[in-house]
Amino acid sequence: MKKVALLSILIFSILALSVFANGQIAADKVLTGKTIVLDPGNGGSDPGAIGPTGLLEKNINLIVAFDLAQLLKIQGANVILTRSTDTYVPLRQRIEIANQASADLFISIAHNSIQGAPNVDRPQVFYWNTSNTSKFAAGIFLKAFENFFGTNGDLIREEFTVLRYAQVPAILVESCFMSNPAREQWLKSSKNLWREAVIYDMAILEYFETLGS
Q1: Which of 76, 146, 205, 212 makes a 20 to 30 Å CA pair with 27?
Q2: CA 27, 13, 210 angle in degrees (round to 5)?
Q3: Are 162 and 170 in contact (CB under 8 A)?
């Protein structure tokens, strides 16, 4: 909990220090002008994973995406959402949005589930393209969520549609397993979803900072 509190304080401190005298918030130079496509997984007729008490993944994905978009926009990024309502967007269309925008990074936001193993709970981050920085980005996001949740996760090369057809750096993040009863309860808190968005934001900052160094 102390780690979570420190991370939250850090991000809010950064934003607070960036306030100008005229009340406007200065954009973080690292993200200024960067185009980031956020893909809240599932939606509409596709609920995604369903938690033990009925929590729907599609709703959680969208909330985290909204929170993350808010953080990124404050820091000067150009943010595009593949969906902003409870609708289903075909997978090829999702990644084409990123390709057409020449996105600097595409992130598919998801939450995992597994039947018959309620104790399983760890982050998994997927990539496909090895000719750009997708694998590098995936490693950064995996480490961020491993540190946040205090558990080892998996870095996996997988030919998902949204990764296979990507012409830009692209990853899919399954931050945790909502099939775990305790984790499902954790995900019901809007504060915890905000904390998850903060971890995404910090990983994005590290990714672009490292590329620019």
Answers
A1: 146
A2: 60
A3: yes
What is the number of other CB atoms lying within 10 angstroms of the CB of residue 73? Answer: 15
Predicted structure pTM score: 0.88
Q: What gap in Å lies between CA 7 and CA 199, rounded to an integer? A: 8
Looking at the domain assignment, is residue 15 inside a domain? no
Helix (H, G, I), strand (E, B) or coil at 85: coil
For residue 26, pLDDT over 80 is answered with: no
What is the percentage of the chain residues whose pLDDT exceeds 70?
A: 86
pLDDT band at 54 (very low <50, low <70, confident <90, very high): very high
**Residue 5 lies inside a defined structural domain of this protein:** no
3-state secondary structure of 114: coil
Query: Looking at the domain assignment, is residue 9 inside a domain?
Result: no
Which structural domain range is residue 81 located in? 27-212
d(CA 63, CA 52): 19
Q: Is 163 exposed, middle or buried (0-12, 13-18, 19+ CB in 10 A)?
A: buried
Distance between CA atoms of 134 and 58, rounded to whole angstroms?
24
| Residue with tokens 């990074």, as numbered in its chain | 105
CA distances from 15 to 23, 30, 76, 77 (A): 12, 13, 12, 14
